[in-house]
Predict the structure.
Amino acid sequence: MERDKKPTFNQSVDFKLIKKVQPNCTESEKVVLGWLVMYPDKIIKISEGLARADFYDGKNAIIYGALCKMASEGKHIDLVTLSSFLEENAVLDRVGGASYVAGLMDGIPKLTKIEPHVDIIKDKARLRKLIQSSYDAFQSCYHPGVTAKDIASKLATEVTPLASGRDSEPNRILSRDVRDWVKRSAGEFSRLDIRNDMNLIATQDRHNLSMILLRLEKDGLIVKSGKREGHYRRVESDLLEMEWENADTTEVPVEWPLDIHKFYITYKKSINVIAGKKSEGKTLFCLDFAHRNVDKMKVHYLTNELGPQGVKVRTGRMKDIPIEKWKKIHFYERTENYEDAIFPNDINIIDYLEVGMDFWQMGHIIRKIHKKLVDGIAVIAMQKKEGATYGIGGEFTTHAAQLYLTLDVRTAKIIYAKNIRDGMNSYDGKVRRLKIVGGAEFVPDGDWGEVDNDNKKMRF
């Protein structure tokens, strides 16, 4: 029965049996560790070709792993912080205590090049792998059913990379593949996105990914995005010079509620934000704008709260508008990824834009919508707290907007309107009183004017 047992490869070598100590150079290991403590900005580069498993001394392997971990987390590295990190992870005693860590710096100031010591460590690691592979082959020769071709083939597979130095290639290939993935990315991404796309399951691969991303960050290819850990965006440094002399200044002939079109010019590809307090007329404004322009352009209305019943009820209240006109508007239910549903050459109304708790993403989403537009425009409604200047998301919501209007306690206010008709003064900051009748009609109360802060009255 024992003779029929299949061979098990990669058995651990019994070095006591052959009475030899494995090839190693612990002095070079300590030199490399001390040098990395002195020059922690080099850890990322060194880690691309030197693995923790290449260290013979277990103490040195633990310290090297700690240095890589600290670097990947952006921690400050010196002898004190390294010892503290090892102590926090309950391994300081295992590496010989703080005195062993301090001893890593002996002779380091006189060192000019670290590469020879890295090469020594890797060469000793290759020798140990060669011994392991040879031992496996030796053991396998005594198993029935295994041919010389099988053993030689497996031995060649394991030994050839050692001879050519390609045993370090997996991490270099991973670094190349991650870099290519990032270059193809658009917008924000996370470590988890890369891990899922590239199927990085092994703990070492995940660790290597963190180091690679840190290297890409230092190289200026990516930057951290927002406040969440592990979220990045690609640095888009390519510049396309504008051909401004050929710019299309044709006005999009839309009609706005509250006579906004009488002073504001709507250009192609424009973003127009309507930020309003709850129940202050955002949806009414959007519906009013939609029916005014459905005979001029195709209108697409993306809503996250009305639903079919809501659309029927709200449009039904606006009794002066025939149902045939409402039928020309394309209504859709949508709650996220609005940029994927934009019609580049039409009117796109989003009622309303929200992103949960990550309000800082509002500007990012608005920019994505802006990039999708060609000859069309977007009208984006969003929630606003009473008394706030901007919608929820603050100044992030102003990105790319040509018109920014707020609705607050029966008052409409132009935060800014960038494209004012010739001969007219700026309308920034102007307000207009209004009434909402039956939830179906805006009734202006006076013209656009300024608020007299002394007595809170309108000045025209």
Summary: Residues 2-164 form a domain with the DNAb Helicase; Chain A fold (CATH 1.10.860.10). The mean pLDDT is 85. The chain has 15 helices and 13 strands. The first helix runs from residue 15 to 18.
